[in-house]
Amino acid sequence: MIRLARRTSLLVAFCLLTSAATASAECAWVLWTQTEGSRSEPRKSEWEFDRNVYETRNTCESALEQEREKVVKSFSSAGAQLARRLPVEHDFFIRLGDRSVTIGRRNDPATSDWWLTYKYACLPDALDPRGPKGE
């Protein structure tokens, strides 16, 4: 009887520790966007985060894909064409990366060549790609 009570209490303690560890491993996810451009002074890149917080990494990844699609749609409606190979065959182009979208214009007599890149990352809410905050 004492053995059974000991085993039961050990089992309960193990279950509680396991559930606590699982709960602490769960976190919210944040979609971050880094914007870099050829006309930034000096070529500065900044990370900004989506104000939405996602419960799972999968929902954050879905939001990342939606953001990429939104950028492509916006620049496509302005006349940019999807570049399917290198070297880029269009003067106003969209180039897709794994987690990025680059928009560029070249050979325009009215303006100099330029590019703009959006890079995306889904990170746990405890991570900040901007680095530690200064005091």
Describe this structure in words.
It contains two helices and six strands. The chain has a six-stranded mixed β-sheet with strand order 2-1-6-5-4-3, with helices on one face. It has one domain (27-124). It is elongated. The protein has 135 residues and is an alpha+beta fold.
What attributes does this structure have?
33% helix; elongated; 135 residues; 2 helices
N/C terminus separation: 59 Å
What level of helicity do the residues show? 25-40%
Q: Could you name the ranges where pLDDT drops below 50 across 5 or more consecutive residues? A: 4-24
Largest sheet: 6 strands, mixed
The gist of it:
With 135 residues, the chain is an alpha+beta fold. The chain has helices at residues 2-25, 57-77; strands at residues 29-37, 45-54, 81-82, 92-96, 100-105, 114-124.
Write the layout of secondary structure elements.
Elements: H1 2-25, E1 29-37, E2 45-54, H2 57-77, E3 81-82, E4 92-96, E5 100-105, E6 114-124
